[in-house]
């Protein structure tokens, strides 16, 4: 059975496994199968043609079997309307169609709009960003070659919000265009690779994400420097290089390479040691500030250690580290989007530890900081539904499920 949709059923299994933040081994364990069996299914090397097996997989992934069969839209209530994404898709499809002379928006005005879009994104107002994107992408057609940093930022903001809205293939396309626009500029290429890594991980391509981000990090910040054996580069290079190492660590952890993920986090910590928290947003002058937008710093590394611990299944370690890191001053200086997304990961840590009340508190806190992170993102909504089924219900969870449209 391959279903009537565009993707083979094995690919859908891989995508939903990734959305549920499960490794192949974790899925195999819950199904009573081997990791090799899951890998073959996802690659299409093994046919998935028995409905009871499909239903079992769907139950583990907490979706309707029809979604795996391509017979039902996976869009959840409360998500950004499809027509919003259709507008972005159409704008991306017009790449290279119009001549620059036909674009009336100046680079100065485009730069102002990009700054507004980033600020809106950092406040987790994703529907508003989606409405801005078609105009920004059209304006990108008229950006001069002399301002590649601006073009990179247009595609990066597009990729970032598309990841949030469960459109990883479109996000991947936008990030790839950012990499192309960066050309031979190592710093710009590094910032574009951060977005590329995020999009590839969202698409379930962890190995590609690991290779792309690590390669970009090595070119921007040689590992000898990252490990403290050579003089450091600029603050901009350190911020972008560190953000790339964090993305590589996430990818390695999802691939089951816990030791490698730990090594990458240690290298990132070496780079962060010379930076203030959130240095990626305000260091190194106008050009580097616009080229970065990474929020990289010591606190970002510690938050990443929590997420990697969750991927390893170390719930106790993740919760203990989380409770320490959110007491740091740098935590409060991170954008709402960053904190909200992290708190959803922290909720997974508490749930993994068997603490439903703690998991509920984290989602309620995430909603207070960045409501769209909980109410619009499918992975967070699924997590909320799972926590809401627990008894006794955590304080505030019942109200949140109503706000998210999960109650009938």
UniProtKB/TrEMBL annotation:
What CDD domains does the annotation carry? Answer: HTH_XRE
The protein depicted here goes by the name Transcriptional regulator
Query: What positions does the domain HTH cro/C1-type occupy?
Result: 13-68
Q: Which Pfam families match?
A: HTH_31
Q: Which SMART domains match?
A: HTH_XRE
